[in-house]
Amino acid sequence: MKHFQILQKLYEEGSLSYSKIPQKLREELIEEDLISIEFLSASRRKIVAKEGFFEYFKKVEKVKKAQSRADLAKEGIDTKQKHIAPQDGLYIAGSGIINGIDLSLIEEGALFLKNIPLLDSNALVVGVENFENLIEHKKQRYLFAQDQSYYFVFRNKKMMELLSKVNNEVVYFGDFDLAGIAIYETSIYVANPKAEFFIPENIEQILRDFGSSKLYSNQINRYKNLKSSNVKIQNLIDLIHKYQKGLEQEFFITDP
Fold this sequence. Notes:
By secondary structure, the chain is α/β, with parallel strands linked by helices. The chain is built from 10 helices and 11 strands.
């Protein structure tokens, strides 16, 4: 929450130097009659917390700690006081059983979980970039080992948390363009150094015949200096520059 640390310091110390509180915040607190200004000299002033400020801060602290809109409502606080996205969580599909639910029975959909579940340690975890690839996971199953159970997981903050905790085999199945590689290098690999960037064996032919020049031109200025210490990934970067094309992962969604 913006300015929380400043408010906390004022709560703990009772007063702060005038310059320590941003003008807009200072004006808001004065308008609500929560602080006063004390002149120490002609050029020195300090902010002093009034009695009402301490009750005000306790409410601010509750908003800061709230994990759900229900938490706010139970404290009698307007649920709009804090942006809480209940849809933030893990979106997962595939095979196997999670929390008693057989994922293979879910057709063209995915399971949403607020917290990270216990995964089958022998299953392959496939990180994907968009919802279409997530819900159509069965149409991309052919890309991976057929004798191994698997989870497709949508890339968001919760997936990154999952990747940092699991010991499963992990592959990142993103777009085959410069931005997709950059996401892997700066995000996926950082969360899980064992995670591999998935590259089909025939990627050169597919990129050459079906890649998008527009995708490349939209990204080249930002990622023109992109390099990788991974030989396979650097080879993909070289191919992208060679054909001046990129390929989105939806290309691989195919009816069985």
